[in-house]
Amino acid sequence: MFEDKSMTALVTAEQRGSFTVRLEGRELPALAAGKLAGEAASRLDFPVVGDDVAVSLHDGGAKAVIHGVLPRRSILLRKELGAAGDAQPLAANIDKVFIVMGLDGNYNIARLERLLVAAWDSGALPVVVLTKRDLCPEAELAGRLAAVELAAPGARVLCLSSLSGDGVAGVEAELAGGVRCCFVGSSGAGKTTLLNRLAGREAAATGAVREGDSRGRHTTTARQLYFLPCGGQVIDTPGVREFGVAFAGEGLATSFSDIRELAAGCRFKDCSHSGEPGCAVAAAVEAGTLPAERLKSYNKLRRETERQELRTDLKKRLAANRRLRSFGRMVRDINDEKRRLRGG
């Protein structure tokens, strides 16, 4: 039975269309109202963990129905796999995105660069968290740290061991004052182990990684928000094998600010850094001041985001054309009906 529709709740968990909301200190199961689902143009119109939502209570206050999503101050997106490539929201109203990457076989600079673009575009601040420091040979640690710092200009880089606790205080400091963050990274990166260390208990189940490639199983299967003893909040997300960039506003330019600064010296303003004469970026690669792999990653992400923008624009144009055709058929039907009534 309908009881109240003027309450605001926080979405704390999401799994396969079902939600959990926090209202006045209570966790309640919730579903999206039929009207909300029917009017949704895309997944962006549905609730996501971290959202503030308008709810009504039912069954004596034991269940909630979500009627609307309040305006968001930030949202982390990824591109869904498949031909459609629609934007998939991962977390909302976050202050920071913690990109978690292991210093074992999980270490992957290209994946880090991809996640950084999405993090900068979210409206939150990215923080790179390198886990499993205890598994990284000392002879390789300095080089890996230097490569990460080059790939993440403007982002803070933390290095830690969740098992020993060494360096975890740096993460707690980032969460001080009630900061809400989101953990993203591939399976086996150590997200859940770090979460449990921060929570001081086994808040979520962990799984073993394969010895050959340090890949883990998807022990986190739903997005969920955790409240930590340090006062911070963490939205844990399932590990991703592939992370497509949904779109790139300023994220690409911010993530590759070193290339943007070099590009200011190119002869042509529309230089693609792919062989044009007078290219300052290519000159930096030849001089050894910019790694060739860095430019390769930039060009790959730039082409990907351009294709995604074109696909999105094309879908908008097709939808507009369908609306015009539908309107045209309606006008023809009305005229036919008028002629019929006149006996013509």
Written description of the protein model:
With 344 residues, this protein is an alpha/beta fold. Among the domains are: 7-69, Nucleic acid-binding proteins (OB fold (Dihydrolipoamide Acetyltransferase, E2P)), CATH 2.40.50; 75-236, 3-Layer(aba) Sandwich (Rossmann fold), CATH 3.40.50. The chain has helices at residues 34-39, 109-121, 138-151, 168-175, 191-199, 251-255, 257-263, 280-287, 292-342, and strands spanning 7-15, 18-23, 26-32, 52-58, 63-69, 75-79, 87-92, 96-102, 125-131, 156-159, 180-184, 223-227, 233-236. The protein has a five-stranded mixed β-barrel. It has a two-stranded antiparallel sheet with strand order 6-7. The chain starts with 6 loop residues before the first strand and ends with a helix.
Write the layout of secondary structure elements.
Elements: E1 7-15, E2 18-23, E3 26-32, H1 34-39, E4 52-58, E5 63-69, E6 75-79, E7 87-92, E8 96-102, H2 109-121, E9 125-131, H3 138-151, E10 156-159, H4 168-175, E11 180-184, H5 191-199, E12 223-227, E13 233-236, H6 251-255, H7 257-263, H8 280-287, H9 292-342
Parallel strand pairs: 3-5, 8-9, 8-11, 9-10, 11-13
Antiparallel strand pairs: 1-2, 1-4, 1-12, 2-3, 4-5, 6-7, 12-13
Q: Just name the CATH architecture of one domain.
A: 3-Layer(aba) Sandwich
State the CATH superfamily name of one domain: P-loop containing nucleotide triphosphate hydrolases
Number of helices: 9
Strand content: 15-25%
Shape: flat
Largest sheet: 5 strands, mixed, barrel
Q: Please give the number of β-strands.
A: 13
Oligomer: single chain
Instruction: List the strand order in the largest sheet.
Output: 1-2-3-5-4
Helix-strand sequence: EEEHEEEEEHEHEHEHEEHHHH
Task: Report the top-level CATH class of one domain.
Answer: Alpha Beta
